[in-house]
Amino acid sequence: MIRTAVRFAALACVGITLGACSSGSSAPKSTPPGPSASSSAPAAAITPDVATAMVSAARALTAITSYDYRDLDASHANAVRYLADPFRSQYESSWTTSVRPQAPKVHAVLKGTTTDVAVAGVDGAKVVVLAFGQQTVSNTGLKTPSVDALVLRATMTRAAGGWLLSELETVSPDTPPTRPSTTWASPDLAAALLSGPDCLAKLQTIDQAHFDARFQAMLDCTTGDLQAQLRGRESQLRTAAASSTTVGAVAVAGAAELAADHASLLVATTTTTTHRSGPPTKALQRYLVTLRRGSGRWLVSDLAAPALK
Predict the structure, then answer these.
(1) Which of 78, 155, 170, 249 has the greatest number of beta carbons closer than 10 A?
(2) Residue 83 has what pLDDT?
(3) What is the largest CA-CA distance in the chain?
(4) Which residues in the chain are classed under CATH 3.10.450.230?
(5) Tens-of-pLDDT digits for all 309 residues of the chain?
(6) From the CA atom positions of the chain, what is the Rg in Å?
(7) Quick one: three-class SS letters along the chain?
(8) Could you give the residue range(s) of every CATH 3.10.450.50 domain in the chain?
(9) Which sign, positive or negative, has the C-alpha torsion 56, 165, 167, 188?
């Protein structure tokens, strides 16, 4: 109970990775990614202005998921400079009623890190950013610091001084499935934003009755080493399907980069697994997804489930 009392409650989120469909060849980045300088992405894909909002979101989220009981004033000042209403009022309320009175009592230290960001939508003066990160929590109620995964959907609003965080949602296993927003994107990016998450949902959906058709759907939307790994795991997947049924859905997706022949996405998925006995179990997964263009289609070539450090 101590941990819950002193941390900003809206940010409690534990990610569970599913390694069965992940190549694991990529490591989480130490700094938030944006469109690379060498990218051949068209201006209509991820503009410099939107990229700035992505970087601003990473800084804001790192600030609001961090504080140190030894200098709460500094922690508070560092966070609120990135905030705008209505989220600023929510943050202030939580800070006043929970963090400031409780943190010193339990020597609470929270350190948030934003590892990856992507743009999930653009609407006029607002940019929706999907962020992956982690939060290390230490206090007198814990024998050792705990590390929790974060999956956050942040709305950034244009302000006189740049971009400010105005709305925040924690993505959880109970987050309803959503179709990626593509109205803001270039045609190439829109196609990648739809193809990548759709394939990921197929990779996480498996049942015995329809195994052959579902396995073929996995092969049809992948390429390269990932497809080869799937072929090598067919027997393992078939055995798993005999004992349980898993349905995957996309909670939120965003674009990190688009080039002429490849795209990088962040995708958070939810899975519901029904076993032969016992209640269904839900889980949240985070993925860095790489797509390659082939024969006019976007195919998933690599998946990486970011590990906690």
Answers:
(1) 155
(2) 97
(3) 61
(4) 2-17+24-170
(5) 233 223 333 322 222 222 333 333 333 333 344 443 333 333 346 888 999 999 999 999 999 999 999 999 999 999 999 999 999 999 999 999 999 999 999 999 999 999 999 999 999 899 999 999 999 999 999 999 999 999 999 999 999 879 999 999 999 999 998 888 898 888 888 999 999 999 999 999 999 999 999 999 999 999 999 999 999 999 999 999 999 999 999 999 999 998 888 999 999 999 999 988 888 999 999 999 999 998 789 999 999 988 877
(6) 20
(7) CHHHHHCCHHHCCCCCCCHHHCCCCCCCCCCCCCCCCCCCCCCCCCCHHHHHHHHHHHHHHHHHCCEEHHHHHHHHHHHHCCECCCHHHHHHHHHHHHHHHHHHHHCCEEEEEEEEEEEEEEECCEEEEEEEEEEEEECCCCCCCEEEEEEEEEEEEEECCEEEEEEEEECCCCCCCCCCCCCCCCHHHHHHHHHHHHHHHHHCCECCCCHHHHHHHHHHCECHHHHHHHHHCHHHHHHHHHHEEEEEEEEEEEEEEECCCEEEEEEEEEEEEEECCCCCEEEEEEEEEEEEEECCEEEEEEEECCCCC
(8) 187-304
(9) negative
What is the per-residue pLDDT for 44? 43
Strand partners, 60: none
Looking up tokens 């190549």, which residue turns up? 23
Q: Which residues on neighbouring strands pair with residue 134, listed in sequence order? A: 113, 149
Q: Which two tokens stand for residue 125?
A: 């003066």
| Distance in angstroms (rounded) separating the CA atoms of residues 42 and 251 | 27
State in words which class domain 187-304 has.
alpha beta
Q: Which CATH number is associated with domain 2-17+24-170?
A: 3.10.450.230
Length in residues, the chain: 309
Whether 289 and 200 have beta carbons less than 8 Å apart is answered as yes
Q: Are 83 and 32 in contact (CB under 8 A)?
A: no
- Residues contacting 260, CB < 8 A, separation 6+: 40, 293
